[in-house]
Amino acid sequence: MRYRKERLDRGIKVRCDDVFALSSYREILYLAMPRVLPVAILLLFPLLKGVVGLYWEKTLVVTCTVSLLALSWDLMASVGLISLGQALFFGAGAYLTGYLNYAFKLSPIVTIPLGTLGGALFSTLLLLPVLRLRGIYFAIVTLTLPLLLGRFIETTKILGGGEGMSGLSPLPNIWFELYVAVFALLVCLFSFRRLINEDYGLVLQGIRDNDRAVMSGAISIYRFKIQAVFIAGLAASFAGAFMTHYYQFVGMSAFAMDYSIVPLTAAVLGGPGTFAGSVIGAFILVPLSEALRGFGTLRVVFYSAILIICVVALPEGIFHYMRRKYHQFERLTEIG
Amino acid sequence: MEDRTILEVETVTKWFGGVAAIVNVSFSLQKGELLGVIGPNGSGKTTLVNLLTGFVKPNSGKIIYQRKDIAGQQPHKVAALGIARTFQMAKPFYQLSAFKNLIIPLYSPRVKKLRGGKYGDRDDVAIDLLEDVGFERDSSVPYKIASSLPHGYVKRLELARCLALRPDLLILDELFSGMSMAEVAGTLPIIEKLNVEGLSIIMVEHRLKELFRVAHRVMVLNFGAKVVEGSPSEVMASDAVKAAYLGSEDDA
To answer: Which residue of chain B is at minimal alpha-carbon distance from A203?
Structure first.
């Protein structure tokens, strides 16, 4: 006798598919939980400073930053633009913010929005000529640009050169830091999810799946690609702008490869194309990396090993797996 | 007399490296006419479609559409002028449901303009369009994810994607390839109806029997050049056509 696995929707999932969902607390909870619970945890975590300690609160800020970069990567991937260089947006936002504060003594309330907009605009313009490239060709260009800009700043000694710009204005207090990071993440996550399910988002996905069919639908794919890169750039540039004031410093490290690779890994680990997956990925990778600090130099070994195991065991991405388990159960059925 | 010409192709030539894909091809199309294009494999039919729709730029020649030379224009601009095409290898947006596939052309500036500056409820329009190409309205088929559709539906979805643009000229690149007899029989009347309602159509096809039934005129390509052009019965009787398809006695 041979068996095969069969997946079936849970009863509660089926009941929740129509209006009866509103008939009982259980159903409402089933629908609302996956959204409400993470949001509640994120909003409450900063209040637990006395319990978890400042160190982990600071880790939350970094995690939110990486999440924003991962979301930004995921939006670009939704249009079929595979980026290996979110550091470009991050660095552009960071440097612009830093310079505005360093040279003109503007307050963070002004420099962060300006840095976000300007950084996204600058990076989009820089990528404009290569938006026609596809797949690996686009990826290579994005990989190179942040490295190029970093070296350019170092050798020309502009914007602080190799030393960077330090002594920038701090953010008002730790609450401000924590809640701005958390709110930025939530706003970005839910607006990207909304965007991709709108008709506008369908066009973006269409460009990823079959750009020729979109073109023959009388739609200029370049316009949409430019817009998508700019929107994605806003998220990543904000991360850079915010971190500049958080660290009160901006230097060549803003263009470091870490800001390109970690978000990409987070998105792939969490499940690309879902946005929630990118955030889950970041919330696993960054705290894990911190938790492994005790291992010293061996940290990277453990980190990489865990990463490989995750990707091999769950190639679909953690979010897809969790969603499936939440909505469906498996059972064995006889065949033959 | 009123000029009823919608498309005028003048001595268009396209080289791919050293290979001439289309050589000095000229033809014209009247409003409301259905022109068939046939030819053996590799005779340049799809290249011709690509030339007409901006996916390939000609090396020389003119493509006059509604009195404007559109040769070498970008595909989305050509489509915005009202030339819609199907692809021989129909590749729908697999991850979207059938009717959501149509949202993309419905989102175009052209459709917005035609609908008086408003996009309106695109979902309803999409379902109507699918009904026009034979998706049963009250069934689950229009809501099925595109990757799960049978081939015949995929091809008709491709047709609906074109109709979403409300085109003035429809170019079908082997719409019937891979369809079963029954699917072809179900699709042919849809094309006939569109044509009767006044839509100009260029139909590249391998299914000669069905094509000859609906075409007003047929053009035969071989090695990128126009061999014969005429009414279906003239073309069927032509020696040059037999030679192109079966090889002439000199070759044998």
So the answer is: B104
Q: What is the CA radius of gyration of chain A?
A: 22
Task: Give B50's Cβ-side CA count (13 Å radius).
Answer: 16
- Running DSSP on this structure, what letter comes out for residue B29? E
pLDDT tens-place string over residues A164-218: 999 999 999 999 999 999 999 999 999 999 999 999 999 999 999 999 999 999 9
In tens, the pLDDT along B199-232 reads: 999 999 988 889 999 999 999 999 999 999 999 9
Contact across the interface for A216 and B53, Cβ inside 8 Å? yes
Quote the CA–CA distance of B214 and B211 in Å, as a whole number: 6
Q: What is the DSSP string of A132-179?
A: T--HHHHHHHHHHHHHHHHHHHHHH-GGGGGG-EESPPPPS-HHHHHH
ipTM of this model? 0.90
Nearest Cα to B101, choosing from B74, B139, B50, B141?
B141
Q: In what order do the strands lie in the sheet with B83-85?
A: B83-85, B169-173, B200-204, B34-38, B217-222, B225-230
d(CA B226, CA B12): 11
CA distance A274 to A96: 30
Angle between helices A108-127 and A87-104 (to 10 degrees): 140
**pTM tops 0.90, yes or no:** yes
Backbone angles phi, psi at B230, to 5 degrees: 175, -170
DSSP B117: T
Angstrom distance (rounded) from CA B96 to CA A217: 16
Greatest mean pLDDT among A54-58, A89-93, A257-261: A89-93
Domain boundaries B5-246, corresponding CATH code = 3.40.50.300
- Extents of the domains making up chain B: 5-246
Give me the total of CB pairs closer than 8 Å, taking one residue from chain A and one from chain B.
80
Token pair belonging to A315: 């190639």
DSSP B205: -
Q: Which residues pair with B247 in a beta bridge?
A: none
Distance from the B103 Cα atom to the nearest Cα atom in chain A, whole angstroms: 7
The span from the first CA to the last CA of chain B, in angstroms, equals 49
Q: How many CA atoms lie within 13 A of A5 on its CB side?
A: 4
Nearest to A219 among B53, B108, B119 (CB): B108
Asked if B161 contacts B101 with a C-beta cutoff of 8 angstroms, the reply is yes
Distance from CA of B40 to the nearest CA of A (A): 25
Residues of B in contact with A200 (CB under 8 A): 107
Q: Are strands B169-173 and B200-204 parallel, antiparallel or unpaired?
A: parallel
- Which residues from chain B sit within 8 angstroms of residue A217, using beta carbons? 76, 79, 104-105, 107-108, 161, 164-165
